[in-house]
Structure formats: C-alpha cells, structure tokens
Amino acid sequence: QVQLVESGGGLVQAGGSMRLSCAASGRTFSTWTMGWFRQAPGKEREFVAAIRWSRWSGGYTNYADSVKGRFTISRDNAKNTVYLQMNSLKPEDTAVYHCAADPLGDYSADDYNYWGQGTQVTVSS
Questions:
Q1: What residues contact 121, with CB distance under 8 A and at least 6 apart?
Q2: Once rounded to an integer, what is the mean pLDDT over residues 51-72?
Q3: 7: phi then psi, degrees, rounded to nearest 5
Q4: 8-state DSSP, 81
Q5: How far apart are CA 113 and CA 2, in angstroms?
Q6: What is the mean pLDDT of residues 73-87?
Q7: pLDDT of residue 60
Q8: Which residues make beta-bridge pairs with 18?
Q9: According to the model, what pLDDT value does residue 36 have?
Q10: How far is C-alpha 44 from the chain's CA centre?
Q11: How far apart are CA 97 and CA 100, in angstroms?
C-alpha cells in the first residue's frame, strides 16, 4: 500500500527558510512523478512543484511562477524521499503543503492518485 508522509512544517518568519520532506513507502518511486501542492484556507489546492523521472537526465523539475527562484524540489531515490526547500518565505506561502505521487503526474492535482496528509507551514510577517 502506497503511503506518503510529510514532515518539516511549522512556523517561520517572513524571509526565512524551511525544508519539507515526504517519505514514500509501499513501492519504488524512482520513475514516478513526485509533486508538492498547497492549500490555504478558503482556497483551492494549487500546484507548487514537481519532479519527473527522465531516462537521460535523471529527472527534471517544474515550478509554479509564484515560487520559482525561491523553492527547490529534489529527490533521494535511495531513501524514497522527496524534499521541498523553501527560501525567502512570504506570508502568502502559508498553507497546508501536500506531497503527491503518480507514475504520470503533471501540474494538476487530478493527475495524482496518491497523497500525503499534509504539513502546515505558517509564515509570519
């Protein structure tokens, strides 16, 4: 059974940094797309970043415009773990962050069949 467990959330001041982790279990995820989404109160779940497997490069990444240049997604296939390094955090980054996995995931939440419970990130001004 596929399980995704996020960790690393908490409270940080604006301008600070935080790293989220997502530990995956139940199968090997090295060729799957791993994504991060977030959902703020009263808003829809939105795409943050994804990392896809590539036969030639080992993986390539995509980011939402709102986080490009500040967030970095990475993966450690040996540990079945994906990370989201968040720098220069802003109050508008406050949300519950969810990890997602799918063999063919893309930008839409509908693309992903497996989800973690989420971890709260709060950025104070």
A1: 9, 10, 12, 18, 20, 38, 86, 89, 93, 94, 95, 96, 97
A2: 86
A3: -155, 165
A4: E
A5: 10
A6: 94
A7: 86
A8: 86
A9: 98
A10: 16
A11: 10
